Amino acid sequence: MWEDKLKIIPSGGLVGILSTLLVKLGNPVNMGICVACFYRDIAGALGLHRADVVQYLRPEVPGFILGAFIISKINGEFKPRGGSSPILRFVLGFFLMIGALVFLGCPLRMILRLANGDLNALTGLFGYSFGIVVAIKLLKQGFTLGKSNKHTKFEGYIMPLFSVAILALLIIAPSFIFFSENGPGSMKAPLFISLGAGLLVGIILQRTRLCTAGGIRDAILIKDFHFLWGLVGILVFSLIGNLIFSPETFKLGFEGQPIAHNDHLWNFLGMTLVGICAVLLGGCPIRQSILAGEGDSDAAITILGLMTGAAFAHNFGLASSPNGVTSNGKFAVIIGIITVLSISYSVIRGLKSTKQGGVKVEA
Question: Domain of life here (predicted)?
């Protein structure tokens, strides 16, 4: 057990340190890595939304996917697969992004915000954990998205090729790509450092299988704290890194935190929605990126849902800002929770009906 901790804690710690270094080198404060925000920025750069302060082809994302792709190919773990309820995965990815943008961050950024003193992230953590508990109950009642099937190699290569295309567009910078001139989208570490950090994070997370949702889920469901120790590593090492590299940005409290708001109810509910969706999908946004690099087209569909959700959030005024949560964002979170729970119970009832029908036929 201690040997496992000695492996997973430093692995998570390296992710935390890399996050703090990216902030030091130019990424927004408390956003060294935010997978939801990064996909949001990429969606904006591609013109899927026109919020001009959050548009940039973040090279960290291609790094995550390509890092996982390279190491999975080397270790014989690249296995193209998919076909497990793609439409439901798209919808869950869509609403996961809505919840994240109401909270203003993915689960990984939630940990990084907490490591830099933002206590609003605690409310998000409580909501995320509550959402995971709700999803666990749904799993126990029989919810499943079904089994994946083996796919052709080409399908497995689609997300790595997409990542290469994003990098090419970033380097060439054609006129039809949008780049923020101010705001969070304009704050960035140097391209190749960001890419290198993304590659390293992708390799680490592919080898460790670390996932924010999985860590809390396993601790609650089967009393396995292995991945939770990895999350502790991210928190502790990120805290240390912040105090060493950027002590001027560390600020303990609720008020005046960067790219955050202190509307606690909606921080809680936004991350509740994220927690439910992440567990039902089988992984948080960073885990979906790693799975996509391994050839999982179900994860690729989820990423398309995330990007569509980001575009929808900014085109229709659902995303929060440091000024607070919009009315549209509040309605969207409530609709998201109702929709996701309705889908879950429909799937459970459908599966139970199928099983009962099978018993009657056999009788």
Answer: Bacteria
What φ, ψ does residue 225 adopt, rounded to 5°?
-100, 10
pLDDT tens for 290-334 read 999 999 999 999 999 999 999 999 999 999 999 999 999 999 999
Count the neighbouring beta carbons within 10 Å of the beta carbon of residue 158. Answer: 15
Query: 103 near 321, Cβ under 8 Å?
Result: no
Q: What is the DSSP string of 121-180?
A: HHHHHHHHHHHHHHHHHHHHTT------EE--HHHHHHHHHHHHHHHHHHHH--TTS---
Q: How far is it, in rounded angstroms, from Cα 44 to Cα 307?
A: 9
What is the count of structural domains for the chain? 1
Asked whether residue 363 is domain-assigned, the answer is no
Which residues neighbour 301 within 8 Å (Cβ) at sequence distance 6 or greater?
82, 86, 89, 90, 93
Is the Cα dihedral 210, 216, 220, 221 positive or negative?
negative
Q: Which H or E element spans position 80?
A: none
| 155 occurs within a structural domain | yes
Give the integer Cα–Cα distance in Å for 204 and 217: 20
The CA distance from 207 to 351, in Å, is 34
Residue 219: is its pLDDT beyond 60? yes
* Strand residue runs (E) in the chain: 81-82, 149-150
Containing domain of residue 295, as a range? 2-355
| Contact call for residues 67 and 140 (beta carbons, < 8 A) | no
**pTM greater than 0.85 (yes/no):** yes
